[in-house]
Amino acid sequence: MILSAIILGLMGSLHCVGMCGPIAFMLPVDRTNNFKKISQIFIYHFGRLMAYSIMGILFGFIGKGLYVFGIQQKLSILIGVLMIVVILIPYKTFNKYNFSKPMYMLISKIKNRLGKALKKKTADTFLTIGFLNGFLPCGLVYMALFGAIAMANPLEGVLYMMLFGAGTIPLMTTAIYFSGFLKGAAKQKIQRLIPVFVVIMGLLFIIRGLGLGIPYVSPKPIVEIAATAIDCIN
User: Could you give the CA distance from residue 79 to residue 146 in angstroms, rounded to a whole number?
Assistant: First the structure.
């Protein structure tokens, strides 16, 4: 399941280019010095990964708390169902019931800070831009956070979000170098694949939650494993 994070990042990075591309294109990188430019882009991505890591550990703790209450299997099924439902619900419906409205004030502050950071060229500018960029609302980040919760472990939650972020780096970096490099039919095909992959991920989470005894994919619940071990000893 951890590997699904980096695949989600790779598959969804085209969406990231569309959403965060304007910020990436406006990065005040030094275009006269390749080494400096690469290091500035690296710092920008590091800032994004820091933001994803913080979210990963927070949502990992949430998952761990739910795991302690013995509902991790049900949680995995619920997350899988939510992933599929989110993809199947028409985009217009989400606009009608905009769940992010209560966060508009916070998002507005983040955007204002981003705007100020983009005007500077100090050493910490790229770290600040990347860090703030990571907290901007994004459907794919929400999907990754579902996965972090399902990990039911803060460390695995961090790893999940970091791998997701790492998966977005290649295409985002290319976008900084070559704006508008991917157009037409190729772009549309990749965008169509994103919902398909999210549905596949959702199905995997559901299968995982069912505890079918499939190694690495759908392991049996710990309680059931312990009961089997006790029976063997007796």
Answer: 6
Query: Which segments of the chain are extended strands (E)?
Result: none
- Please give the tally of structural domains in the chain: 1
Higher pLDDT, 21 or 119: 119
The neighbouring-strand residues paired with 214 are: 218
Report field, pTM of the whole predicted structure over 0.90: no
Q: What is the largest CA-CA distance in the chain?
A: 74
Dig out the tokens for 83 from the structure.
């992933």
Q: Where do we find the tokens 């980040």?
A: 141
Contact between 208 and 72 (Cβ < 8 Å):
no
pLDDT tens-digit map of 146-168: 888 888 788 999 999 999 999 98
Query: Domain containing 75: what range?
Result: 3-233
